[in-house]
Amino acid sequence: MVEIRGYKINNEISEFTIEQFEKVSKILNDEELDKFEKWADVFILLGVPVDEVNDMHFDEFVHYVKDFNAVNSNTDLEMVQEFELDGYTYRAYEDEFKLRVRDLKMIEKAMGKDNKNYFAKLLSIIFKRTDLTNAEHYENAHLKHKEKLFRELNATIVVPYIVAVSRKLINQNEVTEVVE
Q1: What's the rounded Cα separation, in Å, for the pair 141 and 170?
Q2: Are 54 and 99 in a shared domain?
Q3: What is the pLDDT of residues 10-63, one digit of tens each?
Q4: Residues 94 and 55 in one domain
Q5: Within 10 A of 156 (CB to CB), how many other CB atoms are there?
Q6: Angle at 154 between CA 152 and CA 156, to 5 degrees
Q7: Which domain holds residue 42?
Q8: H or E stretch including 91?
Q9: What's the pTM?
């Protein structure tokens, strides 16, 4: 957590919900915003009033951006194999994390849309409720329900999966280029 003009805001992955992490990531990856707009929007999103952000001097603003980025978060987070939520167990894998083609197709499709709630969508596809069949797991209503539930989870759960899926998709694209 960092303090900006007396306002304490989250800056470590362990302090964010998946929903907050999605919003911050979306702002920071928005190619239509310049650097200052991105950081101003992040600070405002996280609780610094608009007037406080807009009235900062350049040097002060740069100082706060540096403070925000001076995070000691552990980027080598372990994959959570399963967790319990609302009395149900959700499992991503048995012995070793592997993605099914069906899952990869759905993830790639989710990335191509508006990217809204992408991290929660990713987890809703990967984590399957242990008491349901595959058919039930892949129903749109069930996936949307999990997406909504998972947005409230701590962001540390999603980071290792983002890394793993990104690597898979990059490798998939390289293989596709070789095959073509």
Answers
A1: 29
A2: no
A3: 999 999 999 999 999 999 988 999 999 999 999 999 999 999 999 999 999 999
A4: no
A5: 19
A6: 145
A7: 2-69
A8: strand 88-91
A9: 0.83
